[in-house]
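hey can u run this one w/ zinc ion bound, need the structure tokens asap thx
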Amino acid sequence: MTDAESIDPTLESFIRRMPKAEIHLHLEGSVRPATLLELARRNGVAPPAPDEAGLREFFRFRDFPHFIEVYIAVCSCLRTPDDFATIVREVGEDAAAQNIRYLEIHFNPETNVRKRGLDFHQMLAGMNRGRAEARDRWGVEMRWIADGVRDSETSPWSVTQTVDWIASLSPGDGVVALGLGGNEVGYPPTPFARDFARARAAGLHTVAHAGETTGPQTICDSLDLLGVERIGHGVRAADNPDLVARLARDRVPLELCPTSNVCTGVVPDFAAHPFRAFDEAGIPVTVNSDDPPLFGTTLTDEFLVLARCWGYDADGIQRIALNAVDVAFLPPDERAAMRSAFEAEFGELRQELGLPAAPA
Ligand SMILES: [Zn+2]
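ok here u go:
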């Protein structure tokens, strides 16, 4: 990783303390190693390593097959609705420590239900117990993105089943969008078009992982065939200038996850990442952590990358942080209220740190 330059201490304080929103985080990829040990013990499952140090080592990204192995090991320890309440509460606690005020969290209901014999509505109720606790204790708001798994053994039914569950929920259940995850290679968007149309008809937002491990065509197809509003990753848009122009013109937000991309080899290093080029082209870019313990990162660390590797100053960092608010899957009035609250907090923080007011 290229990270040569150190950061101005005021800018670092600004990044650590500023209000944040994150819109691309995976629930199953956010479990703390210590908690995974506890859940394995609670459920009588053999943990992938006997102690926390061993688990940290096991979690460390090696290659994509190992990453999938870690993901499966984590999921195998999640057996009850209370397990989901626990991990959601802890995501809230970890968010609060970084002043993350709002999260949109991806989860994979179909695989969890099918492989663990969970009941979807009980699992969601557990998640919502954790969500309520995170809101009450730390003021952290969360919404859910239910991902169908494109390369599931049951594909494309995995997506159909996911829509069946989430299309009839009430707003209080917190599911705001249908997402599409899993391995892109060999699983183009076409078979999922009907289910994405059903989700939109039910009033849900839509998003797809695309252009992470395959090229620009998957991004185009996700927009044209699935009608998605945002793209998870989308890094490979950099291979097609026409697509970059289209994303900028149509204001299609990208959920970029720099450290994840370096770890998985989507880009060789931070210097090669198109984040800043996308931003300068006018695409609404956001920065996200994807699976923090698996990539050894946090959202704060991702913002530090922006400063350290791509020369962002406080104004640029603030603008990117607010992009996540502007493209959140919330009703317009809630989004506007969150933006006002963020702007007020940014104003106070800048004053305290002796930074001039942000440009209008
Ligand atoms: Zn992801």
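The beta strands are 20-26, 100-107, 141-149, 175-181, 205-210, 230-233, 254-256, 285-287. anyway lmk if its weird
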